[in-house]
Amino acid sequence: xxxxxxxxxxxxxxxxxxxxxxxxxxxxxxxxxxxxxxxxxxxxxxxxxxxxxxxxxxxxxxxxxxxxxxxxxxxxxxxxxxxxxxxxxxxxxxxxxxxxxxxxxxxxxxxxxxxxxxxxxxxxxxxxxxxxxxxxxxxxxxxxxxxxxxxxxxxxxxxxxxxxxxxxxxxxxxxxxxxxxxxxxxxxxxxxxxxxxxxxxxxxxxxxxxxxxxxxxxxxxxxxxxxxxxxxxxxxxxxxxxxxxxxxxxxxxxxxxxxxxxxxxxxxxxxxxxxxxxxxxxxxxxxxxxxxxxxxxxxxxxxxxxxxxxxxxxxxxxxxxxxxxxxxxxxxxxxxxxxxxxxxx
Length: 345
Fold this sequence. Notes:
- By secondary structure, the chain is of the alpha/beta class.
- It has helices at about 1-20, 40-45, 55-60, 60-65, 70-85, 95-100, 110-115, 135-145, 170-180, 185-190, 200-215, 230-235, 240-265, 295-300, and strands at about 105, 120, 125-130, 160-165, 195, 220-225, 265-270, 275, 290, 305-310, 315-320, 330-335, 340.
- The protein is built from 14 helices and 13 strands.
- It has a 9-stranded mixed β-sheet, sandwiched between helices. It has a two-stranded antiparallel sheet with strand order 1-2.
- Helix 8 (about 135-145) packs across helix 9, helix 11 (about 200-215) runs parallel beside helix 13 and helix 13 packs parallel to helix 14.
């Protein structure tokens, strides 16, 4: 009897583990059917950009009420069903610490830069890279599109990359050169990168809606937006439009954070800079001579801010400017033919 009891206990433990494994990752909206939500309502939600139970649970009710074809009573029922599936309450710091231990970091291609970032670009959060032109922002983004496809044990995320290009600087040829460094199959690497060129700020936001729908069907590990602010800078002019620009930019960054939360991807955005009048002078450091655009909206939306500046020759210097857990320190890396790598004197 004791042996039987132990066997049954082991089996129930195994079932629990299997259930937890099944539940890793976002819940498809179809799970709401168990709570009496019909297929018609689910289709209306997906048609309007809600692809997972998480997206519904995390949304404010006043945003859901604006959806077409769903009554307020139906929205109430849908929201309650999603909240029943997704944990939304308090937990302990012990549980959070355990979850943090399972966080995946995507390698940059440079060991020194990875050390600076405590392992690489963190999944489930937004990392902002800013700096002047030719400091390596776009090169870093290209490297990530390849390294994210590597196995987790080799600094990768075992997933695809999604690349939103606002400046027209994406080059597949670079991906092939970087793939060669890791001994990866070039055509396969290119097939695993979903690319879109954004033509205006509205299109840029719409692409995120399409991105979320794609992520339900495939495993992605990195989302790149290069750059997040370029189109805002060119479309909105003068102080009269500043408030409107910042509100729209804030919504875009919020959507990115939602994707990071829902799908556990590493979101990497690049940002442009302007000269900082307060940072000039004989005693000013090189790091303070420029500042990222986007103001407090960008500053608060990013989990980690990384500043890049030119060094000697092929070398570039990365500095942690803001992070909840990383110290403000620097690392030197290089832009090589094979992508981002370590700098050798």
